[in-house]
Amino acid sequence: MKSQRKIMMIYTGGTIGMVKDFSTGTLKTFNFEKLVEHIPELHHLGCSIDSISFKQPIDSSNMNTEHWKSIASSIEENYDEYDGFVILHGSDTMSYTASALSFMLENLSKPVIFTGSQLPIGDLRTDAKENLITSVQLAALHTKGVPVIREVGLYFEYKLYRANRTTKINAEHFEAFSSMNYPPLAESGVHLKVFEENLIPATKAPFLVHTILDSRVTILKIFPGMHPSVVKGILELPDLKGIILETFGAGNAPTESWLLEALQAAINKGIHIVNVTQCSGGSVLMGRYETSDSLLKMPLINGRDITTEAAITKLMYLLGKGEEASNFKLNFETPIRGEMALF
What we know:
This protein has 343 residues and is α/β, with parallel strands linked by helices. The chain contains nine helices and 20 strands. Helix 2 crosses helix 3 and helix 5 packs parallel to helix 6.
């Protein structure tokens, strides 16, 4: 007789964990220990579900690296006991957390699926139930006794994406996330269709969890009319270790001498600067235009088609590992969790 799949659900907070008190119209926290009672459809998935929660569930706007470590540690402690994991998370910072976890969890052989909702689980028009039910189904999905998905994914509005390829694009629509530079891993319709050619291949390497992250990093978005003193103030912050530089188009920036000199001075001090496009889709191609030629020669790290969310969390991860400065550029530009294309 086939044993029942065991899924662990971790509730961090967010809209999905709220129900409406119809007598007052206010939202209150949902008791996830009684999850199956409130969503009886979960009984039909053929798996058992255990749920744990942050002691104090948080709005995802308050998410930080300590919370990421807590999620990673919970997975590490329960890794051998469960077939898959579902992380319930507020949508605002879900792409950041899911990207961070993709780097912190090395050599995954089981699915870790992030999901949430735009409306509370108790709302009549909620998207929470479908997102939650399908995420559990994906986390329990096996073929010949082997998990189909072996990476960190993000499921929202009928699509499963590679987590570190996602960005939240809409605060009002149910289709809140997009993956502009990488196709979906699965789609839910009349049938659940998995695109196996898009999945990370299986590995026999041992599962490792990395919880040391260096958050002495920042994001600097280039815009017309930037004041030199503001940029220099950011680049000269004490203890700054890395910068995600959001540039125009294919990695372009103003050619004004004060900006180029400030960037070069930061690099000379050992600060790692990653060139990432502000565009939702597409890639950095330094040297294609004159306005990026100087950045190529510095040289800046080429973020290619990586998202800002994945770039900042990968920066924290690599800095936390203590990567040598001489190898840092190569290590960042090398895909390690499918977060960027290899050109």
